[in-house]
Amino acid sequence: xxxxPATERLRRLLVMLPWLxxxxxxxxxxxxxxxxxxxxxxxxxxxxxxxxGLPPYVDEMIDLFIDEGVIVTGVPRLFTRPLRLNRxxxxxxxxxxxxxxxxxxxxxxxxxxxxxxxxxxxxGEDDTGVVVVNxxxxxxxxxxxxxxxxxRVAVSYxxxxxxxxxxxxxxxxxxxxxxxxxxxxxxxDRSGEVRTFRVDRIESVVDxxxxxxxxxxxxxxxxxxxxxxxxxxxxxxxxPEGRWVIERYPVDAVxxxxxxxxxxxxxxxxxxxxxERLLVRLGPxxxxxxxxxxxxxxxxxxxxxxxxxx
Amino acid sequence: MADRVERLTNLLALLLETREPxxxxxxxxxxxxxxxxxxxxxxxxxxxxxxxxxxxxxxxSSVTLSGDRAGEMGYWxxxxxxxxxxxGLEPDEVRALQVALAMTRPDSAVGEEALWKLGGVAGGVGGxxxxxxxxxxxxxxxxxxxxxxxxxxxxxxxxxxVVEPWGVLLRDGFWYLVGxxRHRKARRTFRVDRIVGDVVxLEEHFERGGDTDLRSALPDDPLLLGAEGAxxxxxxxxxxxxxxxxxxxxxxxxxxxxxxxxGGVEVTVPYVxxxxxxxxxxxxxxxxxxxxxxxxxxxIVAWLEGxxx
Lengths: 310, 309
Fold this sequence. Notes:
The structure holds 2 protein chains of 2 kinds.
Chain A: H1 6-23, E1 25-27, H2 28-34, H3 39-50, E2 64-67, E3 70-73, H4 87-101, H5 111-122, E4 130-133, H6 138-149, E5 151-157, E6 166-178, E7 181-188, E8 193-198, E9 202-210, E10 233-238, H7 244-248, E11 253-254, E12 263-268, H8 272-282, E13 286-290, H9 297-308
Antiparallel strand pairs in A: 1-3, 2-3, 5-6, 5-9, 6-7, 7-8, 10-12, 10-13, 11-12
Helix pairs in contact in A: 4-5, 8-9
Chain B: H1 4-17, H2 24-30, H3 39-55, E1 61-64, E2 73-76, H4 79-82, H5 91-104, H6 109-117, E3 129-131, H7 139-148, E4 152-156, E5 159-171, E6 174-181, E7 186-191, E8 196-201, E9 233-239, H8 241-251, E10 256-259, E11 265-271, H9 274-282, E12 288-292, H10 294-306
Antiparallel strand pairs in B: 1-2, 4-5, 4-8, 5-6, 6-7, 9-11, 9-12, 10-11
């Protein structure tokens, strides 16, 4: 018999029981779907707790039976309230809520802010323990409006590889912020593909009429910005002073530190110039292991920059 | 043998319902044979159950008894530490929290569990705006210390600190801990990912002083990070035509000292931290050159020469 760990089963039960008791009668299928558990396990665990209790009132502690696919709960006595939020859950809720309050469209008098205030107070703190500050450039609001209203925009985009800005028509789907930068995921008329653009490189935005391209079903989510398989990868050996790279950029893999505290980091390289900038900024804190073809990239870039000073 | 979930449920029910601390002897008797008969095996089983309950967030309180059971341990579960208090959330508020999680932490199992406890359900679409929240394992306990007003001790910058935490702050993709550093006797800001090793929560309480607003803890300009009590230096940087427009947009036109022939600019940039300044300048590669001060100029040259290996 396949068994989930006892602790996980009990935890799930302690979350489910108050919800079931509040409703009185719930179809097994509905409860199973809501709490992401298969029906057989759900029924088995509920039948088990229905037998729990203490002498002399066994069977009265948790008054529950299952009849023709419906869970019926009687007078609630015990486990009527859910378990407290643990530290990790509390942080998750507050951080997500505070972050969302910082995004365009958030209403300070809205339901989210009211809910957050109640959660924070319930956790025994005033309203100041978790703060998210993420400035929103004007362009972000414009792009968000375009995504909501299904409009296209004509932009002038300065990519970090090209010398001059390019003129493009974008159909924005998602505007997102990660690692302190804003991005827009949009259909791009130049390439005919859905691509990710950095908002701070957009130099001008003008409305260009209603959207003509429907949003694809799968859009990249925050945290996987450059995760497409066709982006080149580099492997770096990074000293402790250079560890910020791991926090700052999306990485595929990080090894355990060696004796000197150095990690091997594999990360997507959006362009050679981007990697040059990264290597020169890291200086002695990094060496490039792979690919072979980029071995002297840092040296070449440093030589070019040094030419300014001579 | 009975299902472990059954024994754990019975144990929890007993310890929640009891009006007085119960000894292990009484617990085993009440649970009627669900624990082994031998003293040693029974103790081991009970300790495993205690650990299992702790794992899902339930603490068993204990006290050394006096009177006719002197010296024995008594156990119970404090109802207020087990139950989620009624937060008085309205359905639209729970839904708003669900949307917030979908916008910032899609697929978070922890968030789903939290929503279940609040009577909500995870999933759904978060709309067209999203934020990626960096995850750090120290954050939940730091926030808990903020809520409980307990000082924390940790190693940072090769110094052991004791800090009265006021809150955690996310800005520009990094989490910071803001609080009062007891040794420095001043407000300090710490990057959470640079805290070395574990954080210890001290068993004492602190009172917050006057201005503890986190928002003012970080200057708007990242190059002025760590400015508390330090002196600011002003650098002059020459920016090539290719990056000129972007840099002026980033810094503001009041920082432009001169517009050069060919479209480049010279900008003045105040800074505190040389490493941050160096990183900013080198981020522009050959499109930026330090003109002043001479010390910064020579330190950049030395850094670049270090790259020629």
